[in-house]
Every structure is written in C-alpha cells, then in structure tokens.
Amino acid sequence: MTTTAILTDRAAIGRCVHEAIEAQPITDIHTHCYTPRFGATRYPGAEREGLLLWGIDELVTYHYLIAEVFRVVPAMKGSFSYEQFWKMSRPEQADHIWKHLFVERTPLSEACRGVLTTLTRLGLDPNEKTLEPYRRWFAEQNPDKYIDRVMELSGVDQITMTNPVFDDTERAMWEEDASIGDDPRFAAVLRIDPLLRDWPGAVKKLAGWGFDVSADFSGRTIDEVRRFLREWVDRQSAVYIAMSLPPEFRYPDPANPDGDRFIRDILMPICAERGLPWAMMIGSKLGVNPALGDAGDMVGKADVGAVVNLCRDFPENKFLVTMLSRENQHELCVAARKFGNLMVFGCWWFLNNPVLIEEMTRMRLELLGTSFIPQHSDARILDQLIYKWDHSRRIIGKVLVDKYADLVEAGYHVTSESIRADVARLMRDNFHDFLKL
Ligand code: HDL
Ligand code: ZN
Question: Which CATH number does 6-37+143-436 carry?
Fold first, then answer.
C-alpha cells in the first residue's frame, strides 16, 4: 500500500521525485530502433545484417560522434579525408573515433558521455584504451535478449519505431512479412517525409507501386494517395504518422500549393479518420555537409505560425510537434497554450543536451503544467536508450523538485501520490492518452 504523505521539505521531495522517476515505465515516443525481425548485426564489427543497430561499434560510430571526430581530425587537404573514413570498416571507424575522442581527448561532449554511461550501466569499465574488451563482451550477447536487458536498464516499456515507407529496403521487408513489426515491445510509425518534401518524386514512386496518381492531383490522385496511407497505416498498425520538415516549412505555403493540397485533402482527412496524430519534427536542414552522410544535417529556425495555422484549421486533428531550434521553443510552448490538439514533445537532436533539456523542461512546466511530453530518445542504436533516458530522467527530476518546492513555498500540499501521478503523465500517460483522444 503506497502512502500519501504531504511533503514539506526539499529533501523529502527530492527523494520522492527520484523514486517516482526511477520507477516509472517510460514510453519512448520516437526512436530509430527496430524489432529483431528487421535483422540485427550478429556480432561486433560484422556487416550490418539488418536495421536493428546495437553494440559497441554502432554506439561509437553514431553519427553525432562522426561529426565530432571530424572536428579533431579535420578532413583537410593532405591530411585525413572523408573518403578515407568512409572506406574504413565500421570497427576501424570506431577505433578511429575511440582513439581521438575517448583516449587522446576527454570525452566531455554529451554524445561521448552517453557511451560512457551506457558501458557503465551495462557493468563494463568505460576507461578501456581499445574497444576489444567491449567487442568480446558484446559478442556474447543475444540481440533479442539484449533488447529486454536494455529496456530493463532504461526503464522503457515501449520503443516507438520510425518506419520510412519510402526507404526501399525497409518497405520490401514489410511487403515480404507484414507481421515483421509484431513485437509487444515496439510500436510502428508511418514516416512519409517525401510526400511533403518532394511531392513530384513521391508521386512518381507511388505510380510505380501501382497507385493511379498524378503530380497535378488529376484523376483519382486524392483517393489513391489516401488508399496508400490507409494501406500502410493498417499494415504497420502505425500509432502516428510522422515527418521531419525543413525550417522553411510553412502552412499555408503559397510557394508550395501541392504541399498545402496534400495536407488539406489527403493527410488531414486520413489522420482524422484513423484518429492518428501527425507528428511534425520541424527545423532540420538536410545535408549541409553531404560528405558527413547522416552526420551532415543542420538546424534552422522555423515558423511556429505553420503549427498554429494547422491546429486552428484542423481542430479535429491531433498534432505531435517538436522543433529543432532552441529559438522556436518558447513560441511553441505558447502555441500549445492556445490549442489542446497540440502536444509538444521532446528535446530533439541538437537540443538533447543537459543545459537545453533543463531550460526546455523548466519553460514547459511553467507554461504548460504537466500537459506535454518532456522527452524522447531518438535512439538510432538500441543501447543508447540506456544513456539517453538515464541522463534525461535526472534532469527532468531535478526540475520537478524545484517546481514542487515552489508549490510548498506557495502553501500547497505536495503529496507523494501527486508526484507519482505527474511523473506517470509526463513519462508515459500523456502520449497514450493523446493517442486515444
Ligand atoms: O529525422 C529524424 O527523425 C531525426 O531524428 C534524424 O534521424 C537525425 O539524424 C537524428 O538521428 N537525430 O537524433
Ligand atoms: Zn529521429
């Protein structure tokens, strides 16, 4: 029987928040992880066998770390080149990164510290000078069982995937085995960026897949693209439909009437019909340095007005929104105050650093109470769930303690029961309740 104690001092509040946040199962609403049936690298350094990335060589070659290693070993004329790096095997790339970022320099960045936290939480010593001891340990792990271990250590009870239907490799996997996503630990998300980022190119692909569509929306285009979305939402049992959008994204956008028409006549009706949120991840400028591959994307300040217009014009639709620019965060919070069909989530990508997670969580609590989703991991490598949630839980907990202490100061009776209920909302229930709206 849990007690409902009224907490009056900061230390008691701190203990209660810490216990609640450590015990609270987390639904991770945005990751790039996959069920083992999408294929997992069998052992460290092996060629990738599929889409589920895990283990030390993937951890250390996370694209955030690739970007960072090219800062300390720049690709300049006559020295190390991008081509040389990309010609390396994944273990060789990992060795290069480990040497320069973890051995010859102090791994102070958040992406570096994340690897250390993960290794330590797995019971390994993060101070090794080479990756060999880790490779030996990971070689003994079974990917499917390892997923359970990572979920236990990270406290994540649902890993929400990102399933880009325009990715030929992944689409073929779904078409070959529609049950590939059936794993109670995971949920699927229909990711459809090209339909807004490149309508003509997307329409050409749909036509090639047998849909009767034209870029000028003539004929049965609207019905056929709706059919395409319905088919994939149903095949994946997708829990929401997602897009990453550039800083230039506008709605309405006189410069992109096709995009406006797709949103108005196709996406919004299908999302409303299926009760699915549209997750907009706004502010990613892709390929500013193409030589870096996945590490070559950048952030740009976007237009919150587009979100406001969509929430207002489509009151029956639900919008999950995260924005990549720090400068957009306050305005997005204020927009969420105006629209109950807008759920703000996460500290995305370049915002997933302690100083910004703290700033954003404090801002959101002060403007939105507990009606937001403070974090998602964006994990690309399964093991990252361990550090991304370890680091974020601590910061979210720290901010909550301050805010509860403020309430005690204001004479309010803060109870252990209310703290547990708030933490459940923030870390899990807000997402599930929003899906059911
Ligand atoms: O578009 C997205 O979902 C982004 O999260 C990208 O995957 C990005 O490369 C990333 O990994 N961010 O953490
Ligand atoms: Zn992502």
Answer: 3.20.20.140
